[in-house]
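Support reply, case 0932

Customer input (verbatim):
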Amino acid sequence: MDTPYRVELLGPTRPEWSEILTVEALDFVASLARQFEHRRRALLAARDQRWADIKSGALPDFLPETVDIRGGDWKVASIPADFSNRRVEITGPTDRRMVINALNSGAQVFMADFEDANAPTWENMVQGQLNLRDAVRRTISFVSPEGREYRLNDTTATLAVRPRGWHLVEKHVHVDDEPVAGAFFDFGLYFFHNAHELIRRGSGPYFYLPKMQSHLEARLWNDVFNFAQDRLGIPHGTIRATVLIEHILAAFEMEEILYELREHSSGLNLGRWDYIYSFIKTFSHRNDWIFPDRAQVTMTTHFLRSAAELVVYACHKHGAHALGGMSAFIPNRREPEITERALAQVRADKEREAKQGFDGAWVAHPDLVPTVLEVFNTAFPGDHQIHYVPEVHVTAADLLTIPQGTITEAGLRNNINVALQYIEAWLGGRGAVAIFNLMEDVATAEIARSQIWQWVRYNAKLNDGRTVDETMYKTIRDEELHALVTARTGDHHFAQAAELLDELTLSHDFVEFLTIPGYHRLD
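Our regenerated output:
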């Protein structure tokens, strides 16, 4: 399908999608691409240059040119009424039943995810937009194959949307003969169809922004917001955005990121798995910076605790929410003792975050909402604790401290198994996957495969003295693959998953994002 605006739709269409893929909406997406694509590409090139500088020996540090911003008395925009209490935020993909269940979960916020918890098939991306449009208008419903009906409760969570990061494209839509950035497509369609309706209903267009590495990338988002608001006749500052600090380089520019978005800013969130993965990726040239089993790299580890302290300080200093990490546990109703132990761990983790000063945290399952809500209700009165500004003294050395621990065969085997299971599901169109009683997304596969790559590339030593090499990896991969295939009935994508995992873990140079080579394999 071609429009008069040189926008090509290369994916199939359905009659109901015509309500989303309108000429006017696609023209809006195209206007974003034409206005900002050159800057997006320049920023991606700047990422590559910065990575090259680090490989040459330049360790990251806080920027001297922005020293006046850090610790300044400026504030972000005032908090919208329906975005003030964020004690529990539930996250998940945009499939119809998930959207209804998440909005009904009792959480204060639902982050509908077009990124890490979503496999970016064409159907998922367009149908997800249709689902969110119906959710905004409260017309969404779903009937399961068993006949169970799902509808929205009278009171629902506030909706926020996470578009794809700057590095990803939407191959099914071309603007002027080039694939459009996934960020422009996801943000553009949702904003165009829903901004006015959200405002009419007393809310607003709220977003989560992923994978940023610098304040200049936040500046681009801010300019996109202003352009979009002007285009639709909406006052500047109507959009609100929370930024995920999930890259080690972004940790050095937290206050600067808030400052760039200050008219639109609603805080920061610390993403654990992506943050660890970004550390390994950024310093993939260092054979002396080897991480232990990922299960040993907890939020009490020095570099992660330091980043968490800095998030709370940066946000509260400037009047913004600080959001804690994900509780990904899925309650196991058949084995209540597992659930009891896991809920105790969730409670302890969230009590630590509340004590640090966080205003809320993420969960991946509705059954966790009551536990996390109780923790934050007990921790402070009112909607949040932004008034609490901790004294912190976090240095570059704190953020770059390598965690200590051991590498075990069990850890290697778990990484291989989880990566295979997740990639197989992702290739099949599912981005949120239950594995070993945890709801996993792309970040899990990224940290798993990056650790495998690091251990194989630098012949890491297991705690029993054996060396991790390509032969060991392939032996364990074959064992885990055989067990997974044997246990599966029906069609699957394990052969393709193993092929992609090999490509990622056995390459000489680190492959930056698994979603880029993976996307070529998706419809």
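We compared this against your earlier run and they match. Two observations from our side: The mean pLDDT is 96. The longest helix spans residues 23-55. Please reopen the case if you see a mismatch on your end.
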